[in-house]
Amino acid sequence: MTLEQLRTTSLAGGVTGVTLKGQGGGFVIEIATRSGHDAFLAKARSTEPRRFGNPASALLVVRDMGIDAIRVDVTHWDPDQKDMSRSRETRSAAMRQAHKAAAYTRQLASDLEASILDPRPILSNDEVMARMDSQIGQHKAAGAKRQ
Fold first, then answer.
1. pLDDT tens across 41-57, in order?
2. Is residue 140, in this structure, part of any structural domain at all?
3. How many domains does the chain have?
């Protein structure tokens, strides 16, 4: 059952009960209906049950649906099995990395644009290397004169 289906069923009075069930390191929402068919709240584009790592997040969803009372079943909940790959710290580090990458991309685009718009003549690699060799030679000669 999707969020929209839960909302519609709840507004029509078709929900008889909701249970927040612990499964491994997370929680799922089980919905009992008047038709006798129990269902789980599913992910948006899937039939797979939507898992909540934090029961408070699940409670917010249930409350937003207009459901005021629920049952909690922690029989099969084991907090040690929580998937830490989606933790706040992991997500925060990924976001910091994404921001750094975006800043680098913006700087690179700016540098490339400035280079393209630069009115100075374009030099070949050979010309640049010849100039560098000349400058290195001048610095070496100046260093030898000081000694």
1. 998 888 899 999 889 99
2. no
3. 2
Structure token digits, residue 114: 């400035």
Q: Which two tokens stand for residue 111?
A: 């540098």
3-state secondary structure (DSSP) of residue 121: coil
Tokens of residue 65, six digits: 């649906």
pLDDT of residue 87: 64
pLDDT band at 142 (very low <50, low <70, confident <90, very high): confident
Q: Is the pLDDT of residue 103 over 90?
A: yes
Residues 76 and 104 in one domain: no
Rounded Cα distance, 138 and 64, in Å: 75
Taking the C-alpha atoms of residue 42 and residue 113, their distance in angstroms, rounded to an integer, is 47
Q: From 82, 62, 87, 83, select the one nearest 72 (Cα to Cα).
A: 62
